[in-house]
Amino acid sequence: MLSSPEILQKTSDNCVVKSSKTISSLFVLGILAGVYIAFASEGSNMAAFNLLANPSTFGLGKCLAGAIFPGGLMLVVLAGGELFTGNTMMLLPLATRRIKLTALLRNWLIVYIGNFVGSLFIAILIVNSGQLNSGSNLLGGMTIKIAATKCHLTFIEAFSLGILCNWLVCLAVWMAAGAENAVGKIFAIFFPIWLFITSGFEHSVANMYYISVGLLAKSNSVWLNSVTINPDMLNSLTWTNFFIANLIPVTLGNIVGGGIFVAMAYGFAYKNS
Known about the structure:
Blueprint: H1 4-19, H2 23-52, H3 58-68, H4 70-79, H5 84-87, H6 91-95, H7 101-129, H8 138-151, H9 155-178, H10 182-199, H11 204-217, H12 221-224, H13 231-235, H14 239-269
């Protein structure tokens, strides 16, 4: 395991490399990362939907979903991908003037769009696969309910949950960078991600799947009628609300959580190491 100052240097170096990748490379790797996180999202929904539907087993359902979800970030880190939430740590080399603001914004924009394309692609496949008929259509209903719940958050709730989420996600990436073999990276990723999903925090790229698939599934009356959803909450599940009420505040929170509370905090703490 590398020391914290060594992880700091490695993370900064990795971010500098990210800043100089070609647009085509960033876009393809962004799509792949979006796909991997969407796989984790749909798999965690499948594992836990019946537990999440019951208030008495809700916490257990979140715990089970959390145990499945880390596979997504493992795929990104070990197989390769460009994930916006991890790339928020590019604030570190920006602060030390190793990269320019234009390079950072270029990376974030291309990767963010790629993540969305990959997530939406899996959402479309899942809706058309028949998977949401599972559990006598309850998976479809819970998929809609999860999306509606996310779109019903206030701005401050979504922003705060976004901070908490990416604080843990970037700690997972940070520790994985310090691990010198694949097994170490897997364990470094697993526990913080398990914690973030169990806690119910908000991840912008995961929500690109969770809310997109819910919006696509909403038109199926069989899935919609399989669960009870508050009418106001259901009405909030729109494409406009997806972006305004969830994606924007969660993304801003993710930038603060990962970019400031992980990358910048450690950069300040070890700047003279």
